[in-house]
Structures are given as C-alpha cells and as structure tokens.
Amino acid sequence: MTDIAPLAAFARAKFGDPGVHAIVRNGRTVHAVGLGQWVGTEEVPELLCHTGVAGWSPNALQPTRAGVTCVRCLRSLYGEGESDPAQLSLFGRDWQAE
Questions:
Q1: Which of 46, 65, 67, 84 is most buried by a 10 A CB count?
Q2: Beta strands, E only, 1-98
C-alpha cells in the first residue's frame, strides 16, 4: 500500500498560510478552507462550506489570496446575518425595497 502522508502534507502546505483560500479547479468562487479528515488519520484541506468536489485530486483546490466570495463559507466564518468586515454591502443599510 502506498503511503499517502507525503501527498496529504503537500496539500496542507499549499493552504497553510493565513489568508490563503481556495478556488475549485478553474472556478470563480473563492472558498474558505479548513482541515478535514481524509484517509485514516491524515487531514487535508477542504472547503469550509463542504461543497462537493468531484473526485479528490491534490490539484482540485487551487490556492488564492483573493477574498472569500462563497456565501456558505462566509456564513460559516461570520455567522448568519453577519458579513466579512472587508466586504462592502451592495446597498446602504438605509436602502429599502419598494
């Protein structure tokens, strides 16, 4: 059986620095990343929103320093009704639908 520890360590290293997020393959949505159990005791980066990634490949998640844009990830990070302090609101707080 092949030792997967080096593969898991390589995947963790890509996302180990603070502020590193992920895009899936060539997607445009930026996700927050956390560690999740993979095989046995090995942990690898996974999307905080737990959105499925078809097949697991060490290259499926690409690191980026762009801000998180995934709504589900933002809810996990900041709670329901909260938002990233760096995220600008689309409309001012005094905006009301007519």
A1: 46
A2: 21-24, 33-37, 43-47, 61-64
Between CA 27 and CA 46 the distance in angstroms is 15
DSSP letter, residue 75 = H
Q: How does 33-53 read in b/e, with b if 16+ C-beta sit within 10 Å?
A: bbeeebeeebbbbbbbbeeeb
Rounded to 5 degrees, φ, ψ at 62 are -105, 130
How far apart are alpha carbons 49 and 92 in whole angstroms? 27
Residue 74, token pair as written in the block: 């933002």
pLDDT digits (tens, 9 = 90+) for 42-98: 888 899 998 887 666 767 899 999 999 999 999 988 886 655 555 555 555 554 554
